[in-house]
Structure formats: C-alpha cells, structure tokens
Amino acid sequence: MTTAHSLLVEELTLGYKDRAVIDSLDLAIPAGQITAIVGANACGKSTLLRSMSRLLAPRSGRVLLDGKEVHRLPSKQVARTLGLLPQSPIAPEGITVSNLVGRGRHPHQKMLSRWSKEDDEAVAAALEATRTVELADRPVDELSGGQRQRVWIAMALAQRTDLLLLDEPTTFLDVNHQVEVLDLLTDLNHSSGTTIVLVLHDLNLAARYADHLIALASGRLHAAGPPEEVLVPETVHAVFGLHSQVITDPTSGKPLMLPIGRHHNAVGAGR
Q: What are the pLDDT digits (tens) for 161-219?
C-alpha cells in the first residue's frame, strides 16, 4: 500500500496575466480516494491541477503537500510523490512508446545511476495495465489519438507516485476505452491506495467512479462531497446552466444525470 499524503489548497488565487481564473479557493483532497473535478469549460479545472502539481505558481494562497508549500519544494522531490498527466502532453519527435513510458522513472533515478530491475518492472507493468505492450517499439507520433492517450497514462503509472493527477485522461478515447481507463485507475486505487484526482467532462462517469466530487463554477468552489450530495439538479443548473433530472444509476447505484434540453419534455426539471 502507498503512503497517505495530504494535499490541501488554502485561499488559492490563480491566473494568467490580467485574468483571474481561480479565486480564493479552499479545498482538501481526501487521501486514498478518487476525486473528480467537474465544471463548465474555462472554470479553472486544468489551472487548479497545474498549480497542485507545482507547474503554476499562485498569485496568493498556497498548495500544501504533507503540510509543506508545494511550490517551495524541489521539483524532483515533488515528482517522486505526485504525478501529473496534463491535458495535451507533447512527445519528443521520433520517441518510441517504451522510451516515453520509461521517462516516468526519471524522478526515481539519482545522478549517474543505472537503469534498474525495478525500472524495468514498473515500465512493463504500466504497459500491461494500459494494454500497450504491443505498441512498445512503435514511435509515439505514429499512433492514433486513443493509443497515444493510453501511452501517456502508462508513463504516469510507471512513475509510481502515491498521488496521481490526471487532466481529462479519457480525451480521444471511445466509450469502451474510457471505461477501461477509469476501471484501471479504480484498480490502482483499490490495490495500492493511490490518491487519484482527475478532471472529467462526463458528469455521469465522474459520479460513477469517484468517491469525492468537486464542482467548480467561475473559479470558485460551488460544492464538494460524495457524488450523491454533489450531483443534484440544483448544482447541475448552477454550474452548467442546464436543467436536469437525477436518478439512481441502476448499474452502479450512483447518481445519474439526465439532461433536459429545449426539445425534450421538461417535466420534472429541477426536481
């Protein structure tokens, strides 16, 4: 089992140039659980993940990793504890799948140290888990979008961190592979106790797979808690401007959001 690390956000304000994106945000990431961050486009989901992983310095406030400000810690020390899969990663031209996945091992290697058996095992396990073994010798730039996304996830898994942040990890994947990836992350959480934070656009997949939901609206925290407390019609309307019904998913027992558009029967909207 992994070590339970704490990740806290206190009075965090983030932005780019003159534009504020996150405003005075406070939240705690539950250790050992899967947390999904949801919200409308441009509400600050990806910006928040970038700051939690030390890539974006706050204008004010702080991110605390085990009680220490993450932006004051050495980058390699953070990378041994916390891994990030960004939204649109770029691979070096011509790099093969196995070499890219192997880069996930860099934080664990000391200067002048040799590639170890543990490194080999981590890469092999990551390729196997993401079903990319057969792609190991292929250049990444020759892969389809879905294959490429699975390879990036393999690199994140090879890093073997106790905290894993993923920004829209199901992008470019068809529904079958979306479910496969989320099942894989759930397996990792259940078997190793890895704390997982992911940004998802699909509210119903977020509610099905997450233990904890965070709903952002206009850079502020609108709601946080178990899916059955957060995914309610009032929150859907406040965060997305969408009328909906929420029922119990007959498969998972989690809340299931049914959107109500202008061309659908609006009976029950807001209930």
A: 999 999 999 887 889 889 988 998 999 999 989 999 999 999 999 999 999 999 999 99
Q: How far is CA 168 from the centre of its chain?
A: 6
CATH of the domain at 144: 3.40.50.300
CA dist., res. 189 & res. 127, Å (int) = 17
Burial label for 191, CB within 10 Å (0-12, 13-18, 19+), is: exposed
- How crowded is the C-beta side of 199, counted as CA atoms within 13 Å? 23
pLDDT tens figures, 16-73: 988 889 999 999 999 999 999 999 998 999 999 999 999 999 999 999 999 999 999 9
Report the length, in residues, of the chain: 271
Structural domain count, the chain = 2
Q: Does one domain contain both 220 and 271?
A: no
Please list, residue by residue across 12-37, b when 16 or more beta carbons sit within 10 angstroms of its beta carbon and e when fewer do: bbbbeeeeebbbebebebbebebbbb
DSSP state of 139: B
Extended strands (E) in 160-270:
163-167, 195-199, 212-217, 220-225, 243-248, 255-260
